[in-house]
């Protein structure tokens, strides 16, 4: 089989070709059509529909799959795990927890906007959130850590995990072990669109939640979109994608190694080498087949499909400015900068889910152990969205209180504005004298005092 790696020349003087910015999820139409009846069946039939789709899509052989993972299954998973893997999980969990604890916002803040006008925000955990952990073209204990840890740090009351079952009805042992190490106990067996529908509507076994987070295949992305009026769909995280951005300073063999990282997730992923160096472009194309030859054949085939297809390959630009302009237009999920001065180039990047700097910070480290979240916006959503974080598991509620001496001036201005907008009820409420001072209204306690958060 010949490996014809996709190669494109790009001059900064020309407009960026739209097809180079596309991903698998750019056109969800076929997936939306496919998942709509799945969602409807789950809404109507609940658990029975989940069992039906587990048989159809996950090839589960049991007719009466138990949808909730038992304590005994989690115990058995812990027993089955290699202690060295558990050790690495603990290392990753500690780093991820540390990062997200530092990210946690204050419980409340307040300022005196003008003398006697106090206002602030309270941060409140979302009550119930489901973490979707994929299992189609791989298993993802790392996604348990990336989704559940910020939820625990935020203080979500009901945090559940939902993940596809294997054909024998089990859940990946690493996924269960990660949940045990983090402290999540409610785990359900369902995947794809049917899992998203179960979380949106609730079933006999699975509780409905306010929000779902976590990445997934285009079926998951499509279901989240169709259910977004019932369920907060969280950071839009679909098939993995990356750009490796280089100048002439990098070893092409190393750049090729890092280009393969995200391309091995599946044929629906996207991965580009964007470089201003012909030497690097040619060297990477030479090195890729050698790396593929050293890989497990299935994953090598996924990588080849991406890098020889429409959503990946090598892009040679005439200048570094053009390489950076393309990168910003593409807004990749993961960006690795392999240039002579990556920190300086970081300042030129405006749109990327995460940026990994320098040759000793490959995407793999970001995926697993550094601390920042690896559930990141895909499909150009990094233009307006951020990595999954503690903030995705909380909401803010604003509050204000006006002291008696500040009331007349505020009321006068509000009355005028209400009259302009022709709301007489609003205007009368503040033009009428308020003789009774509200008890204690001239004193505001410090933020947080007497403020329960749940
Ligand atoms: N953005 C991120 O942060 C991030 C992190 C990890 C993984 N990912 C991505 O998540 C994705 C996970 O996808 P996956 O496929 O491995 O797992 P998945 O769990 O998302 O998908 C598997 C499910 O898809 C459903 N499905 C499969 N074929 C179907 C069909 N023909 N019709 C309807 N439903 C069908 C099944 O219900 C199955 O349970 C990958 O693309 C990976 O790149 C992204
Ligand atoms: N690259 C994924 C996010 O796009 C995260 C991951 C987990 N495991 C391997 N990779
Ligand atoms: Zn990855």
Automatic annotation (TrEMBL):
Keywords: Metal-binding, Oxidoreductase, Zinc. Pfam families: Histidinol_dh (PF00815). It comes from the Bacteria. InterPro entries: Ald_DH/histidinol_DH (IPR016161), Histidinol_DH_CS (IPR001692), Histidinol_DH_monofunct (IPR022695), Hstdl_DH (IPR012131). Its cofactor is Zn(2+). The keyword Thylakoid does not apply. Residues 426-454 are annotated as: Disordered. The keyword S-adenosyl-L-methionine does not apply. CDD domains: Histidinol_dh (cd06572). PANTHER family: HISTIDINE BIOSYNTHESIS TRIFUNCTIONAL PROTEIN (PTHR21256:SF2), HISTIDINOL DEHYDROGENASE HDH (PTHR21256). Belongs to the histidinol dehydrogenase family. This is Histidinol dehydrogenase.
């Amino acid at each position: 089989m010949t490996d014809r790696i996709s190669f494109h020349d790009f001059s900064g003087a020309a407009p960026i070709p739209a097809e180079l910015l596309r991903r698998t999820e750019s056109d969800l139409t076929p997936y939306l059509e496919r998942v709509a009846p799945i969602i409807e069946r789950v809404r109507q039939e609940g658990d029975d529909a989940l069992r039906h789709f587990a048989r159809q899509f996950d090839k589960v052989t049991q007719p009466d799959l138990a949808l909730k993972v038992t304590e005994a299954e989690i115990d058995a998973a812990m027993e089955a795990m290699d202690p060295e893997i558990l050790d690495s999980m603990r290392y990753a969990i500690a780093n991820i927890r540390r990062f997200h604890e530092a990210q946690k916002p204050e419980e409340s803040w307040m300022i005196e906007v003008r003398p006697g006008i106090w206002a602030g925000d309270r941060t409140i955990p979302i009550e119930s959130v489901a973490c979707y952990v994929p299992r189609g073209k791989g298993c993802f204990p790392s996604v348990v850590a990336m989704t559940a840890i910020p939820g625990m740090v935020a203080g979500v009351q009901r945090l559940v995990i939902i993940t596809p079952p294997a054909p024998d009805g089990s859940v990946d042992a690493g996924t269960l072990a990660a949940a045990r190490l983090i402290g999540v106990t409610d785990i359900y067996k369902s995947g794809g669109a049917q899992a998203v529908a179960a979380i949106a509507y609730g079933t006999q076994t699975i509780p409905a939640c306010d929000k779902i987070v976590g990445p997934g295949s285009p079926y998951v992305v499509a279901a989240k979109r169709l259910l977004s009026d019932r369920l907060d769909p969280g950071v839009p995280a679909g098939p993995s994608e990356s750009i490796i951005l280089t100048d002439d300073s990098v070893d092409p063999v190393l750049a090729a190694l890092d280009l393969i990282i995200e391309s091995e997730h599946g044929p629906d992923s996207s991965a580009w080498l964007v470089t201003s160096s012909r030497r690097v472009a040619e060297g990477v194309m030479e090195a890729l087949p050698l790396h593929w030859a050293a890989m497990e054949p299935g994953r090598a085939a996924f990588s080849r499909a991406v890098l020889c297809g429409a959503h990946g390959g090598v892009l040679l630009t005439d200048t570094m400015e053009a390489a950076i302009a393309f990168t910003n237009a593409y807004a990749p999920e993961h960006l690795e900068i392999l240039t002579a001065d990556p920190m300086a180039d970081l300042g030129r990047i405006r749109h990327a889910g995460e940026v990994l700097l320098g040759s000793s910070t490959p995407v793999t480290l970001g995926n697993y152990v550094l601390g920042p979240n690896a559930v990141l916006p895909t499909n150009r959503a990094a233009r307006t969205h951020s990595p999954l974080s503690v903030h995705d598991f909380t909401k803010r509620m604003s509050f204000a209180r006006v002291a008696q001496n500040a009331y007349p001036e505020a009321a006068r201005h509000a009355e005028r504005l209400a009259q302009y907008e022709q709301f007489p009820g609003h205007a009368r409420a503040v033009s009428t004298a308020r003789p009774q001072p509200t008890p204690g209204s001239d004193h505001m306690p410090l933020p947080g005092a007497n403020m329960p958060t749940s």
